[in-house]
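A reminder from the course coordinator: this example appears on the midterm review sheet, so study it carefully.

Given structure:
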């Protein structure tokens, strides 16, 4: 399965343009969600993302009952995390992803979904720490690296770090959708830095590998 949640709102003060891109790891494509606030202000006139789908309470109830009877079932806990994530109830998604990961520590997809949930819960430092755990499991996991760059850029305003992450995506996963997305974001960074202004002074991406 593939989780793709669109993330919007990189301010013009960061890249010179509005950039919307994909953040998520391994669950089905879903509507855009509102990013956690950053220090940059979103441009005037920015469209409001679509509302999240409602929580499937019936399915949650059934899965929670299953989880109680199967305390070692990591998969059912992952599915509960996915349901709460898709409904943008990130605090509850975190609880179930953490429970799933405790049972299956090497599930890189759950680990990265957990990191994304931390980000949307306004915990960028914790999100990046979890991303590092994902990369310890699978160092060349393209979606995780792509997410790392987005969280660095949006959550920490670390454009040099974002440049490094996206460059890594292109290196380890050429000719993939993730590499194409990363390359576009790298181009936006380079254009912003060459154009001067706030984005150009915030970081010098040319110095990153």
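Designed residues:
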């Amino acid at each position: 399965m593939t989780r793709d949640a669109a993330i919007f709102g990189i301010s013009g003060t960061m890249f010179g343009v509005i950039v919307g891109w994909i953040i998520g790891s391994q669950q089905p494509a879903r509507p855009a969600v509102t990013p956690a606030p950053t220090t940059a202000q979103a441009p005037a006139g920015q469209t409001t993302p679509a509302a999240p789908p409602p929580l499937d309470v019936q399915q949650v109830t059934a899965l929670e009952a299953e989880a109680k009877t199967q305390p070692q079932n990591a998969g059912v806990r992952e599915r509960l995390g996915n349901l709460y994530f898709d409904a943008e109830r990130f605090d509850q998604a975190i609880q179930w992803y953490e429970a799933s990961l405790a049972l299956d520590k090497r599930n890189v997809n759950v680990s990265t979904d957990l990191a994304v949930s931390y980000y949307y819960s306004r915990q960028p430092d914790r999100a990046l720490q979890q991303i590092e755990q994902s990369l310890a499991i699978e160092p060349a996991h393209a979606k995780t690296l792509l997410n790392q760059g987005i969280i660095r850029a949006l959550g920490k305003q670390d454009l040099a770090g974002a440049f490094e992450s996206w460059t890594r995506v292109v290196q380890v996963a050429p000719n993939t959708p993730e590499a194409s997305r990363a390359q576009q974001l790298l181009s936006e960074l380079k254009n912003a830095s060459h154009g001067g202004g706030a984005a150009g002074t915030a970081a010098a991406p040319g110095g990153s590998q």
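Residues 177-195 form the longest helix (19 residues). The chain has one domain: 4-33+52-192.
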